[in-house]
């Protein structure tokens, strides 16, 4: 596959890597000093990861936690800044430890420069991890 040519293409590629559970390739899409932020993260969860190494450590065990099957309802909005997109999507699959269904709605603001993600603000629902029996551990904290 040729290198993605736009922020939207790069984002779609990142989702496919997540479905393929290719975390090293996914992390490789970030700039060395890329930032990942979670503005709605509950207490005890990271609010900001400051570089590719921190993002790699956070994502390393993701496939052991969540087995993603699809990203239905993906909508990518262009902004007035050609480097930045706003993404609306749902991630569906199952929680590995319990086998329970996973269904999370996300909004992300993503900036891409030089073919790498430089900023990713992930507005996910923190109530889902605070529910009794939620099976999010390890890389998600």
Structural overview:
It is a single chain. Strand 5 (84-95) and strand 6 form a beta hairpin. This protein is an alpha+beta fold. The N and C termini lie far apart (33 Å). Helices cover 24% and strands 38% of the residues. It has a single domain, classed as Nuclear Transport Factor 2, Chain: A (Roll).
Unreliable stretches: 134-141
What is the CATH T-level topology?
Nuclear Transport Factor 2, Chain: A
Known CATH architecture = Roll
H/E series: HHEEHHEEEEEH
How many helices? The count is: 5
Number of domains: 1
End-to-end separation in angstroms reads: 33 Å
Share of residues in helices: 10-25%
Overall, the morphology is globular
